[in-house]
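Extended Data, panel c. Modelled sequence:
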Amino acid sequence: MGTHRLIAILLSMLMLAGCASRPINERITQADPSAGYRPYLLMPKRVNNDPGTLFILAFSGGGTRAAALSYGVLEELRRTEVLVDGQRRRLIDEVDIITGVSGGSFTALAYALYGDRLFSEYEQRFLKRDVQGELVARSLNPLNWWKFIGGSAGRSELAAEYYDEILFDGATYADLLTKQAPVAIANGTDISTGFRFSFFQNDFDLLCSDLNKVRLSRAAATSSAVPVVLSAVTLDNYGGTCGYEYPAWVQEVAKSESRVRPSARAVKRYLEMKEFQNSKDRPYIHLVDGGVADNIGMRGVLEALEAAGASATFRGDIGFGVIRRIVVIVANSRSAPKTDWDRKEDPPGTIDQLLKASGVPIDRYSFETIELMKDKEEIYGWRREIQILQARLAGATAAEAEARVPFPKLTLHLMDISFDAIGEPAERERFFDMPTTFVLPAADVDRLREIAGRLLRQSEDYQLLLRDMGGVSAKAGANAN
């Protein structure tokens, strides 16, 4: 009798499977650039935040490894004090924007929602939890099959439900509008085109959709939707129906749709924006892991700098008249596990080849993005030290060079916090070998938190930033709240 009942339940669930549906993102009838979750609207409302400093954190993908490393960066910034308008403040309070991919997006979104409460709850609720094991268990539970078999929902929607339970508590982007926290931007990839799609109202305007009603858990699920392992997250596209007008900077750089520098990337972004507006041919947008397009979440920052270089209007819109300092810290949790493939005559298996074939281009692309950002420092002359060195080479004393070279109107501090900077080979290899999963031993989580702070303190660029801002470096090895 029990067996018959189980069969009846399974048949009922299979019949319901065809009715399974995903959440539908809501349509807007009129795009309103003066409302919604947008950096330029939210940043000026921050208290105890220097408007002259644009401070951006970029948290890479890499599962729990990435979430823990990025959390360690936040902990270090929280422990560090700087001098702003004659007052001591925590460096973390100067952070304006956090852009996150995959595992890094969880830390970004959770900090935007929790604020300082993150430092007492995040480890227990997410970092030191077997998220991957619980997701697998839910996927194998027949009671959950009706949610994603035969309908338009998928495994990523099931994951979003779980993330809501353990971390986000059903919060939507509307809940972030009144928070005194950095703007958190989770990034996904349009699997049809490879274009980046970000969860902030600017990109949702392209789809004529309301981000306020979207749950943070769905953004996190999208950003970490590894192709094949998890399903794509589908958004309805209403683009072209809400009177959306391109920003003035787009109109400036797109007049000829040419690729002439310095606006080539800005022009390309405009062409991508046009694609999202085409709801007639693309009524649905299918999004996967943001790492497919940009595993360190930096392309948007790079494109913004390109747009600033090409458009005076854009420079005015984002406050370049006030901004005198740009700070970018990249928490790059790239892994590089060793293999013994080259010691054997037989080539690696199909699965190993697929994983490597997808990972290598992503890592190379991330490297090139960081190098492009470093090139920006040099090309635009944002490093005062170079000018001082030139003065010294011309015969000036150190004091004369310091006095002769004024501080530039805009300085850029770029820090790449990655395992490559670990000096001790065995320790570096241990971190490179950590897997890209959503479960790690608690001891590894703590090691990642510690190494994040240590690498940040060891960074010459970080020390330059602290000197520039009258900073007091945190105590080495501290992990206390």
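The radius of gyration is 23 Å. This feature is highlighted in the accompanying rendering.
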